[in-house]
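I am writing to request your help with a piece of structural work I have in hand. What I wish to show you is a protein chain and, alongside it, a tokenised description of its three-dimensional fold. Could you please explain, in whatever detail you think fit, how the structure tokens follow from the sequence? You will find the record immediately after this paragraph.
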Amino acid sequence: MYENSLKEIESRAALPAPASDAQIRHLKNAALKLDAEIPQAFQDFLQNHHNGFNWNGLFVYAADGETPRPYDFVFENEGLRHDDDRFNDLLVFADDDMSYYVYSISANEFQVLDKVPLDVMDSFSTFDELFNEAFQSRL
């Protein structure tokens, strides 16, 4: 679903390479700190498309922070959880100046949250729909 939007972004910018098998293993192991399982669709995005990127104010988190990437998924999620207990129920995949793009564990859905009050602005049943929304918001 997000592929057409991603192709448009790729036509406008050089984006990082996909994540390696080692980087995905690192992500899975590091995610144990979050006591959560990383959705397969996010792993697939990182491994089949790009290992995180920053484009037009959208920051898609990377599998690791060892290479020059915008944000490390686990590091960012740990920081958000440390600062605000409401993030303990969320996995944040990306953010921009106004929104977080997340998976709500308790609601079992993907959501766009307003950054300041953390109100749900939109919800989706799939990761693909969530990332399509994130990409479309920046085109």
In short: Residues 42 and 92 are 11 Å apart (CA to CA).
